[in-house]
Amino acid sequence: MPKVCVIPGDGVGPEVVGSALEVLHNLDVQFDFESAIVGTQSFEKYGVYITKEALTLATESDAILFGALTTPRRRDYVSPLLLMRWNLDLYANVRPAYCLNKEFCLAPLDIVIVRENTEGMYGAEEEELENNVVVTKRTISEYACQRIIDFAFKYANDHNRKKVSCVHKANVLRTSDEMFKKLFYGTAVNFAFYNKIRSDDVLVDTAAMYLAKEPEYFDVIVTLNLYGDILSDEAAGLIGGLGFAPSANIGKDHALFEPVHGSAPDIAGKDAANPTGMILSAAMMLDHLDKPHSAHIIRESLKHMFQDKNNWTKDIEGPCGTKEFTQRLIKIMDEKSANF
Ligand code: NAI
Ligand code: MG
Questions:
Q1: Is ligand 1 within 6 A of the CB of residue 267?
Q2: Interhelix angle 204-213/225-238, nearest 10 degrees
Q3: pTM over 0.90
Q4: Which domains, and CATH codes, for the chain?
């Protein structure tokens, strides 16, 4: 039986993870769930944000289901999420963004952002020089660029996507981003020939504009860490908000599934979080653990849910709190899943 490490985390994390677990328990799948305390509660209890035991549990699991963490105000903080991305080498951050109902989407998006997940600015290595000047180190390696490009094209091919766009800033970063772009076209040529997948490249600032103005321009985006982080929040905004955006952090041997959003302290504890992003992340986990039909039931049931305004969540001015939404979704799964 696959082992799933559950990390609810801080803020709305436990609320949306609780909802996703209820949905999973209602499906015909068997997992061995084990919870780990990570984040603020871990710090209060053990003096560290993630213990060795929690990291070991995550490492030994077939998948990790992760809510969100609050970043404390201390300069020596290293995010347990970043630690897991590095230690488990979760190099590909896959972030689909598609519109569940045009009535609450700003753009009819259906894209997947594939974000490099181990390098860039996220080492957060900063050096203070004289006169209040700070230099931040940004690492971009040929190895990491090539493997995220390979991942993106393979993903596009496996998911019947037609185009991969490389998003970069090579007009300014003429060594690092130029290398990324060059490697991209080196791979694109093979996929154009054998798999009929088209390719192009777009500057990151232009990409931000196209996403909003001409969203059908994009299909799969492959990009570096910081650009992917920013563009995926923009994409989430266009499909109704952060509550709608799922993600998967994939490595060769490990995988972690989390919503794109953070711990949302402004709505935490108010039963106001939209659990859709977390539930769709759980669906991505089901695909990863070879349960595509169960993943399909979740996606179709969510589509069905949002057709009816009575089922809308509070972030899109609907009446449903997190718990009510979850109960209604489970009811729809029970009633409709035979048709999906
Ligand atoms: P956030 O993503 O937590 O919230 C941004 C806005 O979106 C807020 O108005 C929030 O209410 C709303 N929102 C987020 N999730 C929602 C949901 N499920 N349903 C409805 N509305 C939702 O980003 P913010 O406020 O910038 O960061 C809060 C904390 O989370 C910070 O400490 C930040 O460092 C941390 N963070 C953690 C992440 C993670 O654990 N993966 C990712 C991003 C931020
Ligand atoms: Mg982000």
A1: yes
A2: 10
A3: yes
A4: 1-90+245-340 (3.40.718.10), 106-238 (3.40.718.10)
